[in-house]
Amino acid sequence: MKPKPLRFFAPCPRGLESILADELEQLGATCVKPSNGGVYFQGDWETCYRTNLESRIASRVLWQVADQAYINEDQIYKAAYALPWNDWFPPTHTIRVNLAAIKCPLRSLDFVTLKIKDAVCDKFREMSGKRPSVDTVQPDIRIHGFLDARRFTLYVDTSGDALFKRGLRKTAGDAPLRENLAAGILRLSGWKPGTPLLDPMCGSGTFLLEAAQMALNIAPGIKRQFAFERLNQFNTLLWNNLKEAAIAKQQPSSPQPIFGSDLYGDALTAAQTNLTVAGLDDVVQLKQANMLEISAPTPTGILVTNPPYGVRIGEQEKLAALYPKVGDTLKRKFSGWNAYIFTGDPMLPKLMRLSTSRRTPLFNGALECRLFEYKMIAGGMRKDKTK
Ligand SMILES: C[S@@+](CC[C@H](N)C(=O)[O-])C[C@H]1O[C@@H](n2cnc3c(N)ncnc32)[C@H](O)[C@@H]1O
Asked: Which domains does the chain have, with CATH numbers?
């Protein structure tokens, strides 16, 4: 008889749920169900390992170990205490409990967090005479609780560090994007390896790094470790086989039509360092240039960028002068290209003065942003200012 499938939840940046659902299906997940800020799915440990290793969009993979109705803290304690924690990891592992809640009627979330931690430790002491210690900075095992108005759900985090920490980006530069958000934006743009790609304001090069890894079919998690390796049920042979299969699928490093530029030398140095550390500097072409002075490197392609975004008055004035010029450069020099501009600045689309063919709401952490699509057709893009 086949074992019962395990239940998982993979959180992701809000707005990327449906493309994460597609990705999870391709990775072999079943019962895939997008929700707010993530996707529920089912599978076995192999699906879990593979998702951690290969998902470019998920932020984590959480294994659901409890899901039930609650009305008070005591019921939550009992539900957490009932779980066979000592089957899953030894008491020598350190733990951390995180709690998130929406419309939860209980008075103190800190108190609930403490109750869950106590339940885990009490159960360990009962079963083995020893209890795990808490480490809030670098725990071996993270436990995530989630409460809505009526239900309590508990997860063991199989990822450890968030999956967007690929272990590749060594210098961050100015307001870098999270890697999984950058990968999701590339997917939303419809970019496929082989199609020319340009980020003319590349900063530390997050779009370029993600695109280069996609082009060479490099599994994003191939160089890092995961929390599931610390669980008792960890299957080393299965994991080694998955990693070997991922390495066998990698393409040898070769120049790709992936182009990046930035106005500032510091940003380019950061991008160059990051590509070098990742072994991808042959794959991407970088140069220092003002976006307003560049020409399209190929007749057609996809431009994806995340322009500077200012909150202070002086910065806003500068940007109000820059954005119309960016729109103008796209119109004059990029006909035949599709441009995707990711921004949290609500003024940008008006100031660009180009017709938007699609706008996709996306969240960069808590900041609501948009991905604007501009199809640059010669002569046809300028908005009629009289309208
Ligand atoms: C928000 S940051 C991009 C961050 C990048 N996506 C990353 O993940 O690291 C905006 C970048 O635009 C660059 N920039 C500003 N004005 C520019 C211009 N006129 N031409 C080219 N780059 C410019 C800045 O140097 C900065 O690196």
From this structure: 6-157 (3.30.2130.30), 179-221+251-375 (3.40.50.150)
